[in-house]
Specification:
This protein is an alpha/beta fold. 32% of the residues lie in helices and 23% in strands. It folds into two domains: 166 residues, Rossmann fold; 105 residues, K homology (KH) domain (GMP Synthetase, Chain A, domain 3), CATH 3.30.300.20. It has ten helices and nine strands. Bound molecules: guanosine-5'-triphosphate and magnesium ion (MG).
Length: 313
């Protein structure tokens, strides 16, 4: 796993602080973008399509001798239509009880919706330990920035409200400082030079899935999953990855492969670039496409595909 450069923040007190901070919100509000920009490394994949994140993802910010914040990115909370989404929402709700502080992300470009109300209710009396973050402020003209502020504030009694742009890293240093001020005293929970608890193989599967999300349309992104069959360091500068893209129906398989295999080549080529950047080696990537009917609705299949890992650890 890559090493992290940190140390921008100066803290006044000597006490070491540490704690867990969740990122919760509706799908697509920018939770994964935010965790990546806070950590300074890509720990979670991002897409313009909702329901991208499918697991609880931890990313660490360590300021040596001062503090460690463990950020916990969660799947967007939405009305579940499949066993998969039911499990994802369950995971996100579980996280609400497990952390020291919350960051409730909302989209500053739109008024609160039913989903936001539902999440605020789920946070319940925890809103006093919640920062309400109005994200995507880069897309709101300056004179209009407060347009929906009061409506969002009315959802709960928040400890603080901050305007940020996760994508442009605006307001993030101040946010980290505010979080550290509020974290309990405690030792670092993870080694200083690590920035996530995910394995390289897990991140690789996600990076491939990110390209499937980006390069396919309609129902394909949500009907697909990726798992790694073989992950092998062949030499200091070469990693072999054999990965399987799972879809639900033969016609989806045909679309992912594309005419003359062109779509799969496009996915493979984009994924390879992203994997090489992440692993820092050349990557020999082989992609296979497999049909597993109804995988999103079957508990056993979901377990096989890694979706109900014990997320409490
Ligand atoms: N303009 C702008 N776009 C943003 C910002 N933050 C995120 N986005 C975009 O919003 C989309 C969704 O971002 P994600 O980070 O995947 O959102 P998410 O909340 O993790 O979504 P789920 O995993 O589906 O719950 C992507 O297209 C991002 O580029 C921001 O501050 N400004
Ligand atoms: Mg996400």
């Amino acid at each position: 796993m890559g090493k992290k450069g940190t140390g921008k923040l100066e803290l006044p007190q000597d006490t070491h602080k540490s704690g867990f901070v969740s990122l919760v919100g509706r799908p697509n509000v920018g939770k994964s973008t935010l965790i990546n920009h806070l950590v300074g490394e890509k720990v979670a994949i991002v897409s313009a399509k909702p329901q991208t994140t499918r697991s609880v993802i931890r990313g660490f910010v360590t300021i040596p001798d001062k503090a460690q914040i463990v950020f916990v990115d969660t799947p967007g909370i939405h009305k579940p239509r499949y066993q998969l989404s039911e499990q994802l929402v369950e995971q996100a709700m579980y996280v609400l009880d497990e952390v020291d502080w919350h960051m409730f992300l909302v989209d500053a470009t739109a008024p609160p919706g039913k989903g936001d109300e539902f999440i605020a209710k789920a946070l319940g009396n925890k809103t006093k330990k919640t920062f309400l973050l109005l994200n995507k402020t880069d897309r709101v003209p300056k004179h209009d920035r407060d347009r929906y502020l009061k409506d969002y504030q009315a959802l709960g009694e928040f400890a603080d409200v901050l305007m940020i742009s996760a994508k442009h890293s605006q307001g993030l240093e101040g946010l980290k400082e505010r979080l550290i001020e509020n974290l309990p005293a405690g030792e670092a929970m993870y080694p200083e030079d690590e920035y996530t608890d995910q394995t390289s193989s897990m991140i690789s599967a996600e990076l491939i899935r990110e390209q499937v999300f980006r390069l396919t349309g309609e129902e394909i992104p949500h009907a697909s999953s990726v798992y790694i069959e073989q992950f092998e360091t062949r030499s200091e500068n070469l990693t072999y990855i054999g990965a399987v893209i799972v879809v639900e129906r033969p016609n989806q398989k045909a679309i992912v492969i594309g005419k003359n295999g062109l779509k799969l080549k496009e996915i493979g080529s984009a994924a390879r670039t992203s994997l090489q950047h992440f692993l820092g080696t050349q990557v020999y990537l082989e992609l296979f496409v497999k049909v597993i009917p109804q995988w999103r609705n079957e508990r056993n299949r979901l377990r096989q595909l890694g979706y109900n890992r014990d997320y409490s650890k």
